[in-house]
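Protein: DUF2200 domain-containing protein
Species: Algoriphagus halophytocola
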Amino acid sequence: MKTTPEHDERMAKMTFASVFPHYVTKVEKKGRTKEELHEVIHWLCGFDDSEIQKLIASKVTFEAFFQQASLNPNANLIKGLICGYRVEELENPLTQKVRYLDKLVDELAKGKKMEKILRKA
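Structure follows.
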C-alpha cells in the first residue's frame, strides 16, 4: 500500500514525545495501564522503562526512535487496518514500523489479551 512521500516524511519527523501522551491517554481511558503500554513498546522495540523516558526527554523523531530500536523478529506478524492503512502492505519501512506501534497500542486499548498482542511465531 502506497503512502505519499509527504505522509512518510511527516511520520519520520514526528517526535515520539509528542505522541506518547496520546498513547497513554488512549490506553488508560480504556482501563489499561502505562506499564502495559511500556510492555508493548518493549516487545516491539526492545526499550526498557528508563530508555523510553530518555527517548521522550530527548524528543527523538520516530526516524531516530526506530533507528535505535531492536525490532522484534515477530513484528511482521502484526496485521490489520490502522488509520486507513493495512499495516502489512505499507511499502515505506519506517511508516510501517510507526503503524505497527499504533496497531499494538490500539489493540491494547481495545482490551485484547497481552498474549495476543505480543505475537509469537
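Remarks: The beta strands are 81-82, 85-86.
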